[in-house]
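#structure-requests
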Amino acid sequence: MSDRMVVTITVPSWALEIPAVAALLQDDPPEDMIPNPDGTTDLFQSEAPWGEWPALESLLITAGIAFDRHSDGKYEYDPETRFFRPAAADVPVCDATVLTLANGEPVVALATFKTLAQAGPLTVDAITQALGIPALSVAAWGQAHAPIPIHP
């Protein structure tokens, strides 16, 4: 039996209007949906197996929709965030899972710091790139890829 953990998936709010996403969320509804001022929505489950939402994550990947999934830690499982961004014209697909603190801040291994320090200046950009964290947030990606223009 899998451990049940809290999961929050952040998606562009317009993705909730896509028929396949709406149907999945009707069949497997989130406990809460929190719209954010940046044009994203947080989908929340408190009892997700292993802190993942496989059906939703798979559908979003297949549909080419960016998301962040934050899974809370429990017992011997550390919190983590999965970043997914589909490939674009000049940007390869990003699908990275990063260990985090409880607040979602990435944890960087000492070995990563040592490797980066030997390669050159230790910058935030170098660290996020080494961890595989995408340059665009879900909100920025959602605004750039919305099916209809979004006017703030």
